[in-house]
Design goal:
The complex is a heterodimer of chains A (294) and B (250). Chain A is an all-alpha fold. Chain A is built from twelve helices and two strands; from the N terminus they run αααββααααααααα. A two-stranded antiparallel ribbon of chain A has the order 1-2. In chain A, helix 1 crosses helix 12 (259-290), helix 2 packs across helix 12 and helix 4 packs antiparallel against helix 9. The N and C termini of chain A lie far apart (47 Å). The relative contact order of chain A is 0.15. The model of chain A has no long low-confidence stretch (mean pLDDT 91). With 250 residues, chain B is an alpha/beta fold. Chain B has a domain at 2-92 and 167-245: Rossmann fold. Chain B is 36% helix and 27% strand. In chain B, the strands form two sheets. Chain B has a six-stranded mixed beta sheet with strand order 6-7-8-3-9-10, with helices on both faces. A four-stranded antiparallel beta sheet of chain B has the order 2-1-4-5, with helices on one face. In chain B, helix 7 (149-161) runs parallel beside helix 8 (179-192). The chains are: A mainly alpha (294), B alpha/beta (250). The A-B interface holds A 176, 178-189, 192-193, 196-197, 200-201, 203, 292-294 and B 50, 52, 55, 78-82, 85-86, 88, 90, 92-97, 105-106, 108-111, 143, 145, 156, 159-160, 163.
Chain lengths: 294, 250
């Protein structure tokens, strides 16, 4: 052999280090690019970028607060809406029906649901969800736009269910059989075992699932863009149109010609990056805090 | 007198017959040991008394288990399990609960309401009965999983005792413990029989002879011999028992 075992080992190790370092480097460069490209906007928009409620590129006014609110609002509401379903599916797959035909069918459906391109979701929402919402709006006597925050929340909720459900189901399966048996041996019913033993044990894993779903909701662009109405203003109700950071960028970047406009859009990207990072870090902290030491 | 009567118990998992026609009467406030080589069905007998076998979908049971004249299979499984305590092979305190909550778990889980003072007294008396009180009385709010293996097992015994069971089922309670911790559990078993009937499954012959009043020997799903420990360990009636005791198999 030309190469000794040791040198092969070294090459392997270097390849590992190299790829790991590359990922970190890409992240840092990514952040720096956003920072540099938005620098002029940060300078010129000042604090007004975060607090301003008017986004008017023609007048050169860039207030991103409605976008921030739109992103957080749609994500939070869709998360809230999807949780009961995600949790039920997770319990179904992780506790009640671990094997069998129906379980396999449900599992595949969830995987499929996660794999559908978001433009298809948007398409579906536009043709099915929006007319339904319009009918509801007529019934309630509000302006029947159809598109708006509610449509975005509903389609997002459906999109993120698979993420939270799949991870939570795995976590539930990881709960050791012997502590389940301990609970049953004390005369607990299945519901009591789930509520007092399985849920507390799997808590941090649920949280990780929720976080994954939230990350998906925060960054989701296409489906939201298609149904939210793309009006950068403070939404007055759930039925009103709005906008999110990701949608705004997708919609306006192509037509932005003014350098400050482009820089401001990049600054929105930076803000989205920051919000996602913040939520991910906070989530990590909580997951660690609540994980069970054995 | 017999508190528990097992009559013609057969348990099968799919095609596999794990327990074949076992009958025995368990005497009140005595320690009865079920010993035998692994796979002889002794744990299955134990688990079909508190109906824990029902957790696995393929288990089928025939025969009767009578507790104080009541057919346990005619009652609700949850109620049966509240009357029968169980301690498992590996210590399994609830990792998310404090020591206090672990002992009170039977009440917390079942949603039985007790006022604070009653619960405090119950936790203390159960921990005292399990010979753990002095070691943990200052850390009742800490997680039970920080205790040593032997302490965790005594915590599990306290948890079972807290429901004031009529019978305690111990499934090889010392097999995951070091010799010193095992000895303290054995000591505890002997002490507990004044207040509760104990059914102990073990593959440890010496342990059976040390702590039990009655011994059952099971082999390949059958009950080979059942009687006073004093007799069985000195003059076994069946050739297979003798071979097992002298280490020819098992």
């Amino acid at each position: 052999m030309l190469w000794s075992l040791q040198s092969r080992e070294n090459i392997f190790q270097r390849a590992l280090y190299g790829s790991a370092f590359l990922v970190v480097a890409i992240l840092i460069l990514f952040f720096l690019t956003l920072l540099f490209k938005s620098f002029s906007a940060v300078w010129s928009n000042g604090w007004g970028f975060f607090t301003g409620v008017v986004w008017d590129p023609l007048a050169g006014v860039y207030g991103a607060f409605p976008l921030l609110l739109g992103t957080l609002l749609t994500s939070a509401l869709s998360l809230l809406l999807s949780l009961p379903f995600a949790l039920s599916i997770a319990l179904f797959l992780g506790e009640f029906f671990r094997k069998g035909l129906f379980s396999a069918a449900l599992r595949s459906s969830i995987e499929l649901l996660a794999g559908i391109p978001s433009v298809v979701y948007g398409f579906w929402a536009l043709f099915i969800l929006v007319p339904l919402i319009r009918r509801l709006e007529i019934l309630l006597g509000v302006v029947p736009l159809g598109v708006g925050v509610l449509a975005a929340v509903l389609v997002l909720a459906i999109m993120i269910i698979p993420y939270a459900a799949a991870l939570s189901a795995e976590v539930i399966k990881l709960v050791p059989q012997d502590i389940r048996e301990a609970a049953y041996s004390l005369g607990a019913t299945r519901y009591e075992v789930i509520r007092r033993v399985i849920m507390p044990y799997a808590r941090s894993g649920f949280f990780a699932g929720i976080l994954l779903a939230l990350g998906r909701a925060l960054g989701e662009t296409m489906a939201v863009t298609m149904v939210i109405g793309n009006a950068t203003k403070m939404p007055s109700s759930l039925f009103d149109t709005g906008n999110t950071m990701a949608s705004l960028i997708a919609n306006e970047l192509a037509e932005a010609t003014d350098p400050l406009y482009v820089a401001s859009l990049t600054q929105v990207g930076l803000l989205l990056f920051g919000v996602s990072a913040l939520i991910s870090l906070a989530g990590k902290y909580i997951v660690r805090k609540y994980s069970v030491e054995i | 007198m017999a508190i528990l009567s097992i009559q013609n118990l057969c348990v099968s998992f799919q095609e596999n017959m794990a327990v074949k026609n076992v009958s025995m009467d368990i005497t009140e406030k005595k320690v009865t040991a079920i010993m035998g080589p692994s796979g002889c069905g002794k744990t299955t007998v134990l688990r079909s008394i508190n109906r824990l076998h029902e957790l696995s979908a393929h288990a089928r049971v025939a025969g009767r288990v009578i507790l104080r004249g009541e057919d346990l299979y005619a009652l609700d499984a949850m109620l049966v399990r509240r009357r029968i305590g169980m301690v498992f092979q590996r210590p399994n305190p609830f990792p998310t609960m404090s020591i206090y909550d672990n002992v009170a778990a039977g009440y917390l889980l079942n949603g039985l309401r007790l006022d604070r003072r009653e619960l405090d007294a119950l936790v203390e008396s159960s921990l005292r009965a399990a010979a753990l009180w002095d070691e943990v009385k200052d850390s009742l709010r800490k997680r039970g999983t920080f205790l040593s293996g032997g302490q965790q097992q005594r915590l599990c015994i306290a948890r079972a005792l807290a429901l004031r069971p009529e019978i305690m089922l111990l499934d090889e309670p010392t097999s995951a413990l070091d010799p010193k911790a095992a000895a303290s559990i054995e000591e505890l078993i002997v002490r507990l029989k004044d207040s509760v009937t104990i059914l102990l499954v073990t593959h440890n012959i010496a342990q059976a002879s040390r702590v039990s009043d009655f011994t059952a020997f099971m082999y390949l799903g059958e009950l080979v011999e059942f009687g006073l420990s004093a007799k069985m360990f000195t003059a076994p009636g069946d050739k297979r028992t003798e071979e097992y005791l002298t280490g020819k198999f098992g």
